[in-house]
Amino acid sequence: MDNFIFKSPTKIIFGRGTEELVGEEVKQYSKKILLHYGGGSIKRTGLYDKVVNSLKKAGVEFIELPGAQPNPRLSLVREGIKICRENGIDFILAVGGGSAIDSAKAIAVGVPYEGDVWDFYAGKAVPEKALPLGVILTLAATGSEASKSSVITNEDGWYKRGLNVDIIRPQFAIMNPELTFTLPPYQTSCGVADIMAHIMERYFTNTRNVELTDRLCEATLKTVIHNAPIVLKDPENYAARAEIMWAGTIAHNDLLSTGRIGDWSSHAIEHELSAIYDIAHGAGLAIVFPAWMKYVYKHDINRFVQFAVRVWDVDMNFENPEETALEGIKRLEDFFRSIGLPVRLSEINISDDRFEEMADKATNRGQKTVGQFVQLGREDIINIYNLAK
Amino acid sequence: MDNFIFKSPTKIIFGRGTEELVGEEVKQYSKKILLHYGGGSIKRTGLYDKVVNSLKKAGVEFIELPGAQPNPRLSLVREGIKICRENGIDFILAVGGGSAIDSAKAIAVGVPYEGDVWDFYAGKAVPEKALPLGVILTLAATGSEASKSSVITNEDGWYKRGLNVDIIRPQFAIMNPELTFTLPPYQTSCGVADIMAHIMERYFTNTRNVELTDRLCEATLKTVIHNAPIVLKDPENYAARAEIMWAGTIAHNDLLSTGRIGDWSSHAIEHELSAIYDIAHGAGLAIVFPAWMKYVYKHDINRFVQFAVRVWDVDMNFENPEETALEGIKRLEDFFRSIGLPVRLSEINISDDRFEEMADKATNRGQKTVGQFVQLGREDIINIYNLAK
């Protein structure tokens, strides 16, 4: 186990009806906020009215910034920064999924910064200050509600880049599983893949003696795997929605990475896909992760055997552990397929004509590698895209 | 899953050499602190010198209050409160195990309170303010380093009572597994029993649909069960000490109770034992918990079957699940015995002559019940003491 520092202070307010508490929660921080959300879905479901009423009741003024979209855009972030500055706003409430939250986080670090907010995502500067923010989550997926991560897409070149700093962890996250009842099945499944990917990125590590976090990862994966088919059959199953929603937070609040170094190459490889093709991140991960596994499993067959046996209940083949490892990868791929996700690029009509361009972007034209479990160069990434064809 | 609020903001600073960071950490809060610890062990091991040097280097003044002992006493708490008030101290650093930390928490709520600090433990008042505190942990057991709990013994009548409020969660916990290398085997085992009890108190619940937290509980229990014999054989095994230490925090920071109502009767029943006989809390739990299980398991056999199969890898008896449930309880008892703990009161020379007195105290002379999984009255508690004879 490596030395680590862990602090995940987000106040989780979980359960039925909790969105009604938002006004009381927000007013502890500010009386004038930016209300940031996506499109019309929160208006259709009635959530928007509940939030607005709760804010008004608590005497909280708000200026709205709708328009957050999947793979959230830098241009909207810049607009949010401008609104906050011009109106002396010092708190941001994001209502939605990872897109609204990641976008809110970018606004939060952008407002007190004199330079261009993209500096933080391009790795040219590290933010030292951030406005506090709160979240009402409507989608179990990115774990952004309690994470230190934000991923933004720069339309100028379609670069999708992440920022990871503790100061952007939300102050509170209101999580009512009922708010996820109306999600279309495909989005639910993409969320499931994203949650599982967050765990698997941490699970595949070269750090030894990480038994507790291994087991916590396995516990969280098994819970998601068990409950995903239930919510697809029965979208208003509160219990199963709740398990997935809470698992989504645990998957990415860094508890599961304490004392270990995760991999994260599948995320890097996927980000290039969704930046160019604007596909759902979770769908991209369902395609990339099994291909990545097939490419790297020989680096540590035992770890893939453990994954197969403990997560997928594969019967251990003691005479041929490699077969067990491969069966685990197959089960993952079969699972993604069973919940309606693509597992090959061809299934979403992506051909091989931009593999080199994406590998170039992921590695800064071959100047750097991605991944920690196995460090992958430009050629490796092209090979993985080919395995995912 | 029940609605819940979860916030566990303690900054965990984990790993080799981390005690050297204490001065830098403390000075973010205060330049004049109470340094609270137990007896001579931190002086023998050299930890005391390291802490003092680090504080001095950071320019932090300190007044010392040694003397925290197992089942920490109210009189020392009162002394600490007096010292803090007389010297304008606004931060407490506890160095030690649960006793020093629980005692520091009591001082922390006592200083800003005009009445008697025991009011909080007797349930006569709820603290609204607390001094901030930090911890250097030297014993994996109580989980107090990140919990909202403090247990104090009032020598006037030997009442042992707990306080549970979020404001006493430490600001930071420095956790170096090496600091636990010198623990005697018996104390190590008592710590293991305490950690397991914290998880099991949460595990045995009537709340349905708590799959994720069930699995996280099982993961943490399995880790502790696996690593306990390793550290008993090889006390300086860093990896195994680290697993147990981190598990001890997770066991009691409330992550494992999110969305569910735990039982906590074994703790209440044990507290009467250790208050009167001054035995180690962990040893008392090793005696009480199996007896409690034997007394209540029929209330929900399936839950005990799950415990047996998932935690103890008992082969499921599909024709007779009750046998599986009982085998799980037996495995727990065998495990405690295997790590050198008593599992019967007679083994620590406690006879049955004060069972009624203890049951009276636990239930306020039969006026109330203890436990949530099964609500136990005075007679039930006497029956459990008898099962533990």
Q: Which two chains touch over the largest interface? A: A-B, 40 and 40 residues
User: CATH topology of the largest domain in chain A, what is it called?
Assistant: Dehydroquinate synthase-like, alpha domain
- What Rg of chain A, in angstroms, do the CA atoms define? 20 Å
Alpha carbon gap, first and last residue of chain A: 37 Å
Q: Percent helix among the residues of chain A?
A: 40-55%
Q: Secondary-structure element order of chain A, as H and E? A: EHEHHEHEHHEEEEHHHHHHHHH
Main β-sheet, spatial strand arrangement of chain A: 1-8-5-4-2-3
CATH superfamily heading of the largest domain in chain A? Dehydroquinate synthase-like - alpha domain
CATH architecture of the largest domain in chain A: Up-down Bundle
Q: What keyword list fits this structure?
A:
homodimer, 389 residues, alpha/beta, Rossmann fold, Dehydroquinate synthase-like, alpha domain, 2 domains, six-stranded parallel sheet, two-stranded antiparallel sheet
What does this structure look like?
Two copies of one chain form a homodimer. By secondary structure, the first copy, chain A, is α/β, with parallel strands linked by helices. Chain A folds into two domains: 11-179, Rossmann fold, CATH 3.40.50.1970; 185-387, Dehydroquinate synthase-like - alpha domain (Dehydroquinate synthase-like, alpha domain), CATH 1.20.1090.10. Chain A is built from 15 helices and eight strands. In chain A, the strands form two sheets. A six-stranded parallel β-sheet of chain A has the order 1-8-5-4-2-3. In chain A, helix 11 runs antiparallel to helix 13 (321-338), helix 12 (301-312) packs across helix 13 (321-338) and helix 14 (355-362) packs across helix 15. The model of chain A has no long low-confidence stretch (mean pLDDT 97). At the A-B interface, strand 1, helix 8 and helix 9 of A face strand 1, helix 8 and helix 9 of B. Strand 1 (4-14) of chain A pairs antiparallel with strand 1 of chain B.
